[in-house]
Amino acid sequence: MDADAKRRAGLTVWGVVPARAQTFLGFDWGLRRIGVASGNRITRTASPLSTLHEQGDARWQRVQALLRQWQPDALVVGVPYHPDGAGHDNTRAAQRFARQLHGRFGLPVVEVDERYSTTQAHALGAHDADAAAACIILEQYLRSLP
């Protein structure tokens, strides 16, 4: 899916996701916690990794360590919306996180609507709901790729 197609589909993209991109990290942003998952374009599947509990600079250091470890081609951030699609304070905060990821690390970042991902993770009995929600968000994006 090229940048124009992504924008038409309602995805916001910071940078350009290379057509050859294979490895992705997904984030379920939250004020207190960030769930993280890794995914692969070939299998179109993702696996939950962990939940970051750090705040401030320590949070960014953990993100940087994950990027070094997994070396993703691009990042995916879940952005929460109200059921009617309206944005709210956490929508804007998650979008800010996505922009900061792109600015700090220079990787392409795709914003994905993450409504109900945490609810779905709980319904599936996830032990770590935040990492499982990141997995759901990332698989949603991977399934949208050509």
List the helices and strands and how they pair.
Elements lengths: L2 H6 L3 E3 L8 E6 L5 E7 L4 E8 L3 H15 L3 E6 L9 H17 L3 E5 L3 H7 L5 H16 L2
Parallel strand pairs: 2-5, 5-6
Antiparallel strand pairs: 1-6, 2-3, 3-4
Structure description:
Helices cover 42% and strands 24% of the residues. The chain is of the alpha/beta class and 146 residues long. It starts with a helix and ends with a helix. 35% of the residues are buried. The N terminus is likely disordered.
Runs in which pLDDT lies below 50 for 5 or more consecutive residues are 1-9
Number of extended strands: 6
What fraction strand? 15-25%
Please list the strands of the largest sheet in the order they lie side by side: 1-6-5-2-3-4
Helix content range = 40-55%
Offer a concise description of the structure.
This protein has 146 residues and is of the alpha/beta class. The protein has 5 helices and 6 strands.
